[in-house]
Design goal:
Rossmann fold, transcription (chains A, B), homodimer, DNA-binding, four-stranded parallel sheet, 434 Repressor (Amino-terminal Domain), alpha/beta, six-stranded parallel sheet, elongated
Amino acid sequence: MSQVKIRNMEEFASVSGISRPTVSKYFNDPDSVRPSTRAKIEAALETYEYRPNIFAVNQNRKQTKTVGILVPYLADPVFAEFARNIEQRCVELGYRPTIFSSHGVQQTENDILDNLLALKPAGALLAPLGRESDVAAVRAFCDEVPTVLFDSNIADTGLAFCGMDNPQFTRLIVEYLCRSGQPPCFFEMKTPANPNARKRRQSYLEAMRTLGFEPQVFSVAGEGWHFEEIGRQGGHKVLTSGEMRTNTVLCSNDRLAIGFITACYELGMSVGRAEGCAIRVAGQDDHPFSRYTCPPLTTIAQDYDTVSKHAVATLFRAIEGEEFPYEVNLFEGKLVMRDSA
Amino acid sequence: MSQVKIRNMEEFASVSGISRPTVSKYFNDPDSVRPSTRAKIEAALETYEYRPNIFAVNQNRKQTKTVGILVPYLADPVFAEFARNIEQRCVELGYRPTIFSSHGVQQTENDILDNLLALKPAGALLAPLGRESDVAAVRAFCDEVPTVLFDSNIADTGLAFCGMDNPQFTRLIVEYLCRSGQPPCFFEMKTPANPNARKRRQSYLEAMRTLGFEPQVFSVAGEGWHFEEIGRQGGHKVLTSGEMRTNTVLCSNDRLAIGFITACYELGMSVGRAEGCAIRVAGQDDHPFSRYTCPPLTTIAQDYDTVSKHAVATLFRAIEGEEFPYEVNLFEGKLVMRDSA
DNA sequence: ATAATTTCTTTACGCGCGATAATTTATTAG
DNA sequence: CTAATAAATTATCGCGCGTAAAGAAATTAT
């Protein structure tokens, strides 16, 4: 490694013995130059430290190598896992992903979309806030940037949506709960942030009716993204109300279930499918922490990997110029039987 | 809002009736122009949509408004919380934070530092991987960019370090455990990624000796960042080994404790400080989920807010030109008494 | 070998803005 | 009202690179 500092592409071109426009072509696509010149450039790259100035590159190219990743709440391990997974795939494809979190706030989501737009990204992968989203703002963004939505759908927005097959999710676990014990009641937030929650409620009702059982829904108060606390406090209310007509609770998602189990503990109720337990609790999502609740949580596993993979693949089809109609890709979940139900 | 699209600062200057250099000055610092011209510019800003091209700005300014935030593992809610907190503070100060995660991998950490360098950030806030970090690479980065380290310290690197006062943390909870029941043994990973873990072990030994008790340390195998699973499997080994000379376990951190409690559950051992419980378990960090374990976890609360605040404040002192010697700022934790110990 | 084709070089311009110097205009002090 | 000061204007350059056109050189095909 030479001590000579290369200041720009001009200098690098001269030490590599290739003209600047050709070097520029090389950095744009190494395969676009003759193998012999490519070798020369890469030899120089071994000797001298040089990388094109990213700001100059991005200013002049119409399309950057940036990919925006936006999740509604990064402190939720479900979304941290999505972000990590998607990020890695983008890196592998030679792009520069940037992760943003709306922190559950519409204004923040809008600000991020606005800032992201200024970065002229090649594409974006968005998990919108859901109910809190400014639909017009998200649509406006999608009109400018190739975008794939995931997790939380906004109809006909962006190139495609990749998410869960909520009816399948809920039907699967409702059927399991019904055949292994008492039919479940449904525990949810009254005004859920995420549209998946509404679909799951719907799917619960349908599944119960199909199976010939009377559904019972508990919608508890609570705003924001502190689901565990909402689940805990709501759990206390429901459990002490005496209104539960069953010993089995299906929670709208795992984080609510985690809080609900805490409530059970605090009320001295034993949770589990084992004999002698007072109550069975199940969740939906397979949250990373669900394996470690006491008892471990029975739930439906969302396949982060498949959803991420498909979302990224769809985006890059578009980035690489393919045209295709709007898609909705829903993926099935798998039952994860643990001890809580 | 006019329909005329403003393409650059030149055009915006002309529609606002102000010369381009003055407009440029305004965007650099709105207070640097006369109030009357500022008003004119802001009036135009109401009518026309224009924002300076961020790439052109960053190319020409020696210093950008970017701030890099790097954490070792974003899927760990402790770091998600840090990242969120720091991010928000930077936004409030008018900067553009960008969050990165090393995902526990040295090469990733190095790549991120490398990429970050190319973004000419005004500063960076790094929580290094710890044992896995390439110290030379981190130091090299710190030589180029004003950097404050947090959470995990690398001696004499960067402008300052902000983190926990591990001796105080551990002493506090050891004292509590000793006066409220049997003195604790210490449960940790054999080769912890994070240097805090080593200090906590040390501090445990000292605290126990000071109090006149015989320490006992269990170092369990396990690599990586899946602490809950390591805690669970290690917990099984320790609990079934018959080597524990006490009914109280202090875990090196909350995530290990969460896994340990799961192991207790799986072995049918009741956890808690209540009478009749088989074992007491305590953690350290006040992980966001610790409130929801069964029983809720007694732990030492790390003050994310204060650490973040201090780290950001220190960085911006440097960004704004102040010179000061290398600092180490350690913050005390508070005992959070819940039911597990 | 010659022609056809591909690739490279040279030259030149443009992107959008920061920065500077010299000049003009507006504001404030006396 | 004039001088002193502050602020805005005009003009001009530079940043580092993308890109286009025209011609030279190297490669491939015939």
